[in-house]
Design goal:
seven-stranded mixed beta sheet, 0% helix, mainly beta, four-stranded antiparallel beta sheet, 118 residues
């Protein structure tokens, strides 16, 4: 079973950048799609973006398109979320999740807090 651990969150000023990492245990990580999600206080969790098993295909929510980039290094069992031009509305707990063959995100990390000050 794959386990996920996020890191890299923190406090940053608006316009700044952060890179989140999602490190996976297990030798079958490359078999999973991986998504990044976020949840702000009082709001529902939303999909930020996702990356295919081989890293070739990505999808981004409109709210982050052009500012965030997802990549993965399967040799290191790690997926990254590069966040540039951060805005206060990006403040949230960010989670990575792995999807099984049916497309269900059934493995979740514990989350990492990102706070963007104005």
């Amino acid at each position: 079973q794959v386990q996920l651990v996020e890191s890299g969150g923190g406090l940053v000023q608006a316009g700044g950048s952060l890179r989140l990492s999602c490190a996976a245990s297990g030798r079958t990580f490359s078999n999973y799609f991986v998504g990044w999600f976020r949840q702000a206080p009082g709001k529902e969790r939303e999909l930020v973006g996702r990356i295919s098993r081989n890293g070739v295909n990505t999808y981004y929510a409109d709210s982050v398109k052009g500012r965030f980039t997802i990549s993965r290094d399967n040799a290191k069992n790690t997926v990254y979320l590069q966040m540039n031009s951060l805005k206060p509305e990006d403040t949230a707990v960010y989670y990575c999740a792995a999807a099984n063959g049916a497309g269900t995100y059934n493995i979740w990390g514990q989350g990492t807090q990102v706070t963007v000050s104005s």
